[in-house]
Every structure is written in structure tokens, then in C-alpha cells.
Write a structure and sequence with these properties.
four-stranded antiparallel beta sheet; 3 helices; 10% helix; six-stranded mixed beta sheet
């Protein structure tokens, strides 16, 4: 299996249905109390690409994309329109959107992440597919120029600084990002008559771990 660094057409994913999935194991005890645990440190996203189809031309584009990925064999990028920025959806990206940690004078590499907060609780998500040209980085609140101070691997989301950030200097960033996914089916069934009557095919897509 390979990963193709190509994005599923964003105009088709715009109408899709999906979002994060968690796995929780629940054991109900004899006294009615529960024990809950999860084997997953991070959520896994699922989508239905079929819901974004609006015309037979869209169906043709989907089938071509599906064939080029050989069904479930090869992964690809997906734009989740409900969650594709490191900051709020209504605001422009800034280099202060997310904290990546603090410099120690030695460490050069930092993994892009996004933290989701609710009250006193938080969950951190690893971002492996930043969108080229959208990433902004700062050290100690001062934005750093790409190419002169740092580079990013768009296939892994790892940022490499030319010089390690100083001790105690906070590294922050902002960007748009895609989700690494694959089709979760090897079969796409389309009936022209049914599609014209409003029945769209189901084309499940699932996030892949990298």
C-alpha cells in the first residue's frame, strides 16, 4: 500500500457527512456500575463521499479518483470542511494558533499538532498533512520565515528548524491541514436512474494511521 499525496476534490467533499469516531469499551458490573476504557489515544475520522455528488459529472470524477487509488489500496488526502484549520473556522490563520512545545536549545524537529479543549480537559491530535503554503510558525511570539528558518515535510507534518529554538522559547504555529484517508470499500455502485431520482451511492472513506 502507498499513500498518494493528492487531495480528493474539495468541491465533492464539501457535501459529505462524517467526523471523529472514538472506541470505548464498556463493562457493566453486577451492581450496575460501569467500567469504561479506550484502546485509542486519538479519534479516527469517517466520511461518506457519496453525499457530495450533485451531478453525473461529479460521479465520473469520483469513479476516476477511485480507480486511480485502486479502491482501498492507496491512501489520499481529504479536506474535512468542518475541521481543517488550527484556529477557529471563522478566523484567519495566525502563527499563534497552536503551541507545539518549548525549545531546549537542542531539539530541531517538532510535530504539528492541534489541541481540542473543553473546560479543564483537552485532547491533542497529530497533524501529518499540512496544506502547502498555509503553515505559519513563530518562536517566542515572533514569526519565522519559511525556507530561511525552517522547513516542513508535507507528508509527515514534521517541522525542522535550521537552528534549535532557545531554552524556554515557545514554538507556535497555524495552518490548514488535510486528513490522511483511504476508501473503505472496493465497490462503488451507481445507477443513473436512481441517481437522477436523488439516490446517491454510498462511498465510505476512513482515516488511516501513519
Amino acid at each position: 500500500m502507498a499513500f498518494h499525496e493528492i487531495r480528493f476534490p474539495a468541491n465533492l467533499s464539501f457535501g459529505s457527512l462524517g467526523g471523529p469516531e472514538r472506541r470505548t469499551e464498556i463493562v457493566t458490573l453486577a451492581n450496575g456500575f460501569e467500567e469504561r476504557n479506550t484502546p485509542w489515544a486519538q479519534a479516527r475520522r469517517r466520511y461518506d463521499a457519496g453525499l457530495g455528488l450533485r451531478s453525473l459529472d461529479d460521479v465520473e470524477v469520483l469513479i476516476a479518483f477511485f480507480e486511480a487509488r485502486q479502491g482501498r489500496l492507496h491512501g489520499f488526502r481529504w479536506k474535512d470542511w468542518a475541521d481543517f484549520k488550527t484556529g477557529r473556522a471563522s478566523r484567519a490563520i495566525t502563527p499563534l494558533d497552536q503551541s507545539l512545545g518549548y525549545g531546549d536549545g537542542v531539539r530541531h524537529d517538532f510535530q504539528l499538532t492541534k489541541t481540542y479543549r473543553s473546560g479543564d480537559w483537552a485532547a491533542t491530535r497529530v497533524l501529518t498533512k499540512p496544506v502547502t503554503g498555509t503553515l505559519r510558525l513563530a518562536i517566542g511570539g515572533t514569526e519565522q520565515p519559511e525556507g530561511l528558518a525552517w522547513q516542513v515535510d508535507p507528508a509527515t507534518g514534521i517541522v525542522s528548524f535550521d537552528a534549535p529554538p532557545g531554552v524556554g522559547a515557545e514554538v507556535t504555529m497555524g495552518c490548514e491541514f488535510d486528513v490522511p484517508v483511504r476508501f473503505d470499500t472496493d465497490l462503488v455502485q451507481v445507477s443513473v436512474a436512481s441517481f437522477q431520482a436523488g439516490d446517491v451511492p454510498k462511498v465510505p472513506v476512513i482515516e488511516v494511521r501513519q
